[in-house]
Design goal:
single chain; paralog of FGE (formylglycine-generating enzyme); 2 domains; 4-stranded antiparallel sheet; 8 helices; 24% helix
């Protein structure tokens, strides 16, 4: 009898431990929801991620432009966000397989080797501003998402673009003011590169003060892609109830939602609630037919920052996010 009970208890303990292991793998504990550095395997490159706690906030600005109204309550699930905009040092590995192979410590795995990559641009996509530790610029929304796919193939971690709501929530960092530090435009110079101090070009990441949640250059330097379609009247349909993780799925090529202002922006355009969108004439000088699905040859002010949800989606959801066919642009 004793032997039977011991065996039963041992089996029961094993099952409990297995269940706890599965739960902890699928749903990270709060202790694991901490800042971390993501290394790009077999390379010298890495980038920082900071936890953005879930919560509710008031999205929009009653004193802003019409597409920022009405102010409405949104609830956001927790996620990590890149502490900085993605730099050319990292993006170049995705852009140019030969470059990635040259700096890689090991041969590229087949799954990475076979990835579809951007066409090498026919002009200088740094627009003469240089690359070292500076934000990558000029990519389309499709190009930004495919970069996230490359990251996933390299690291095994699901990275994506933030939704518009996630971006504003992170930028506000619990504030209800014009900027996360208050309403005084004179303080912007401490936190952002914009028309007053940029001298008309991008700057290396992380030289200004971060916001309270550890995000550098969230305002200014370069604008940042979100994963949403832009609709000017979006907020009017969100007034009846608290919106939980709202998003607008891309159905057409233009316009896509962009946030954050850039190095040429006036102070007013760096407001946390300010909305921007992509335009077809950003490819006006592109000689290709159809026009490039990867590049905006007239946009030296648009980059990206990645997020990682605390609770990752299913494999089928990940595949659907990354493998959406590009929309042809004539």
């Amino acid at each position: 009898m004793t032997s039977f009970n011991l065996k039963s208890w041992t089996f029961y303990s094993f099952i409990c431990a297995l269940v706890l292991l599965v739960i902890s793998w699928k749903f990270p504990s709060q202790e694991e929801f901490v800042p971390y550095t993501q290394k790009i395997p077999d390379s010298p490159q890495s980038f920082g991620m900071t936890p953005i706690p879930g919560g509710k906030f008031m999205m929009g600005n009653s004193g802003g432009e019409e597409d920022e109204k009405p102010v409405h309550q949104v609830e956001i699930s927790p996620y990590w966000m890149g502490t900085h905009e993605i730099t050319w040092d990292i993006f170049e590995m995705f852009l140019d397989k030969n470059y990635e192979e040259a700096i890689s410590e090991k041969p590229l795995p087949d799954i990475v080797d076979g990835l579809t990559r951007p066409s090498i641009p026919y002009l200088d996509m740094t627009f003469g501003m240089g690359k070292e530790n500076k934000p990558a610029i000029g990519m389309t929304q499709y190009g930004a998402i495919q970069f996230c796919k490359w990251l996933y193939m390299k690291t095994g971690v699901f990275y994506r673009l933030p939704t518009e709501a996630e971006w504003e929530y992170a930028a506000k960092a619990g504030s209800n003011s014009k900027y996360f530090f208050g309403n005084d435009e004179n303080l912007l110079i401490e936190y952002a590169w914009f028309e007053k101090n940029s001298e008309g070009e991008t700057h290396p990441i992380g030289l200004k003060k971060p916001n309270p949640w550890g995000l550098y250059d969230i305002l200014g330097n370069v604008m940042e892609w979100t994963s949403d379609q832009y609709e000017s009247n979006t907020y009017h349909s969100r007034t009846d109830a608290i919106q939980k993780d709202p998003k607008i799925t891309i159905q057409k090529l233009y316009p896509g939602t962009i946030r954050g202002g850039n190095y040429k922006s006036p102070a007013l355009d760096l407001r946390s609630s300010k909305r921007f969108y992509s335009k077809a004439d950003w490819k006006r000088i592109d000689p290709q037919i159809p026009k490039s699905q990867w590049w905006f040859p007239e946009v030296p002010f648009l980059g990206l920052r990645v997020v990682r949800p605390l609770h990752p989606p299913t494999e089928s959801e990940i595949k659907a996010y990354y493998d959406r066919a590009p929309i042809a642009d004539y």
